Amino acid sequence: MSDEREKYQAYPHTVLAFHGATPCRIDLRTALRPDDRRRLAALPVAAPFAVLTAENPEGENVEDADDAGEAAEQERDNRRRTRTLVATLEAEGVPYVRVDGMAPDGDYCERCVAVSLSLAEAVTLAGLARQLALFWYDGEAFWLVPAEADEPPRRLPAPEAAAAAAADSGAAPAPNA
Length: 177
Hints:
Elements: H1 3-10, E1 15-18, E2 24-27, H2 34-41, E3 49-53, H3 68-91, E4 96-102, E5 109-115, H4 119-128, E6 133-137, E7 142-146, E8 154-155, H5 159-169
Antiparallel strand pairs: 1-2, 1-4, 3-5, 3-6, 4-5, 6-7, 7-8
């Protein structure tokens, strides 16, 4: 399996932590519940919206660096990319909410934004940031949508991610909502 494909297949195992006045946490490995949708509707960005990042372009994660010096440089670059993305959104008057996209155990985290853009605009923005993919919330469910990855869009939760979440919690996997 290619490294890009492996990284793309990790996306459905993401937990999104939305910041701001109405913070909420959404585990993309599980089907959305009505209270999740209510919390998402209370965010200052209207559905549909995209969740994307400017960090780790082309799936090159800081954790993949050969040494601590390279990792520190990549982290500085990530912070700069995030500041530039936020400054661009603010200059263009695009409402956004800060989001952390993280591994379920919290071991990995990227600074992201949720933005009310059309899907085409969001894919273009993610492509300009050289991102493999983005998350798209259509008001009912989240989707994994490729930007640079040569993969099909996927409605979340993905079956393998739901099974992993169920194993983590000791529960049976829930069907797609």
